[in-house]
Structures are given as structure tokens and as C-alpha cells.
Amino acid sequence: MLGCACTCLKVMLKAQNSSAVVQRNGNWYWNGRGVRNYKVTVVGAGGGIGQPLSMLLKQNPLIDELTLHDVGDIKGVAADLSHICTSTQVDFFDGVKQQELIDSLHDSHVVVVPAGLPRQPGMTRDQLEDANSGVAMAVSCAVGMACPEALLAFITNPINTIVPIAAEFLKAKGVFDPNRLFGVTSLDVVRAKTFIADYMNIDPATVEIPVIGGHAGKTILPIFSQCLPKFTGEEEDVKRLTERIQEAGTEVLMAKAGKGSATLSMAYAAAYFVNALLRGLNDEPGVIECAYVASDATELPFLATPLELGPNGIKKNLGLPSLNADEEAAFQKLLPELRQSIERGVSYAAKIIDAAKPDQELIKEPDSKVEDSAKYAQSN
Asked: Fewer CB within 10 Å: C terminus or N terminus of the chain?
């Protein structure tokens, strides 16, 4: 993996002063007809999340062009989606060459990434991290070349580490914008709304609750004290539902008996978040969603908090919501684990970047392959 990652980064650095970098003015999203239509690219469109996510995005009226990429044959998925009677046009690119990924990304406004190995029963988050780090590297390198002003949203797990890796590679390319990089944690919010609504016997669409921290186990912290409508349960209900939200991915893995993971609910949550990004691009007021982003809300450089979205990605990071004593204690407890995940990601990226720099000028063509580990399925 290290050798392939070095090669991909060398390609990226070589292209830094070439025409591969797309420059756009402030109206780069405007189509000249008084209507804003957007291109969304799904990297990993053939997997368990990618296919239902692409189907949901095909139905989004804000999307003019939907481009699919996968390392395997994606032509059939694109043909299938193209028969759906919406005006969104479907295009596809497939293959393991990095150039094919770059080509798929040109002129994208939003890039959403469900690519990566799925979590298997018994697999630790560290093992998943080892498998999927190359995805963050390959995609961030390609985005840095093809569409540096796009909003980049990673679904690839473990989010707590993958997003810091992507940030470091974007920094190496000189195109990192903290307002444009997201780790999609919407599934935690979707689950929280669903479980709370089930308990209170109300419509999940009426529930609003911030979920902060990260996107793995105890780093996921739903803030019940800020739930609207007010949560009616007791302290033991808060504890039970919090634990269920934190371990919901394992709940699905067990229910599917090792034959699948949380693909459909993740696709729904990702489509919901992409729609929020597009509404922000459209300058719709009051678009607020939680996501894992670069943050100064604490001493940690990344954190999931509520965000107001706008034409340039994050319009305003709303920071930490008000926490009660129990929530504050739980928040302080999750910080060390989240810090370790972030530091592992930064360390991984630094190793690859340092290894690539000495002979970067030797690379003449972007002919490296996307990581072999990027078998495009995913789990949450």
C-alpha cells in the first residue's frame, strides 16, 4: 500500500504546476441560464452503499449531472440508472488507473465517497483503517488535481481517521479548504431521530437532535438535552438509546449474519447530506447539518458539530451545543480516543508525503493505480 500511495502522491505533486489543476472564478457553479445545476460524482458507485446512493441522487432535482466511478465495471449500473425518468444525466468512468478517477471528477461541485472495504464481523476499526487509508489518499489526490473547489464528502470508514488523512494530502497539494472537506456522520443523526421517534411514538421527521464527536463507537455522542421535541424518557432511557446509537452499525452486522452491513440506511443518510450541501451551494438560508470537519471548537483539529452550510461549503461552524453534566462528562471521555484516531491519520499521511517528495520530478504521467484495497463497498 505504501508504494502505491507514494506513486499516487508523486503524480499529484508533479501536476501541481500543470494544467491538471482546474481554476474557476466565483461563479463556477452558475450555468449562465439563471438556474444553478450541479454535477455530483460518486466514487465507489458500484458498491453496497454506492448503488442505492446513486439511485437516490438520480432523483435529486438539484443535480444536473451524476457521474459514477468505480474500480470495477460500472457501465451496467449507469445504464440501469439512466432508465429512471428524471432529467439528471448519468455518466460513468471505471478502472483502476488514477487518471480514470481524475477524469470522472472534472467540473464536479460535490464529490461523495462511499469507496472502501466493508467492515466485517469481528473486524476492529484499526483494521478497517489499515484497509481504507489508501482510499482517502487516492481520492484527495485526484480531487486536488481535477476539482479543488468541490465539496468533498467522505463516507469511507473509519471517518475519524480518513478525514485527517484527506486533509493532509490536500494540504500537500496546496488546495486544502477546511470549509470544503466533510466526514459524513448523518447516519448517526438519522439513527438518533429514528430511535427517539420510536420511543416517543412520534414522526421521526419532527425530531431534531445534534450528534457530536466522531463517527465510531463511544466517540458518537447524541445530545439528548437539546432534542426537539423535548425527550420524555428517563436517565436510563437516555443511556440505553445512546448506546444503541453508538453500536447501531454492529446491530446491523449481526442482523445480517455477516452477509452485509448498514448499506441502505447509510445511502439514505448520505443522499440527505449531499442534498444539504447542494441546498447550501444554492444559498438557501438556514441549512444546518452535523458533520465531522476541521474545527477549532476544542483543542482537537477535527470534530463533528452542527454546521450552517452555504455557497462555499461551511458557512459557519456552530460549535458545541449546550451540554448537561452527564453529556459534558461523556464528551470529555471521548476526546482521547478521537485524538488518537486523528493522530494516526496525520502520521500515515506524513509518511507517504515524505516518501514521495525526494523523487517527485521523476513522475511523467499519471499512470498509477487506485489502491488495490479500494474494493468499493462500505459499512457503517
From this structure: N
pLDDT of residue 373: 34
**Average pLDDT over every residue of 174-196:** 98
Cell of 315: 458557512
- Which of 188, 198, 203, 296 is the catalytic position? 188
Set of cell numbers at residue 79: 445504464
pLDDT of residue 142: 95
Active site residue 215: yes
360 neighbors 31 (Cβ within 8 angstroms): no
Q: pLDDT tens, 124-164?
A: 666 767 778 888 999 999 999 999 999 999 999 999 999 99
Question: Which runs of E-coded beta strand occur in the chain?
Answer: 38-43, 63-70, 89-94, 110-113, 151-154, 181-183, 211-213, 220-222, 288-294, 302-310, 313-317
Would the pTM count as exceeding 0.70? yes
Sign of CA dihedral 164, 168, 173, 175: positive
Cell numbers standing for residue 202: 412520534
Furthest CA-CA distance within the chain: 64
> Grid coordinates representing 326?
452527564
From CA 333, how far away is CA 346, in angstroms rounded?
22
Question: Angle of helix 2-14 relative to helix 325-356, nearest 10 degrees?
Answer: 80
How far apart CA 103 and CA 93 sit, in angstroms, is 8
Active-site residue identified among 215, 283, 296, 367 = 215
For the residues 101-123, what does the mean pLDDT come to?
86
188 catalytic per annotation = yes
Work out the percent of the chain whose per-residue pLDDT is above 90.
Answer: 74
Main-chain phi, psi angles of 165, to 5 degrees:
-60, -50
β partners of residue 336: none
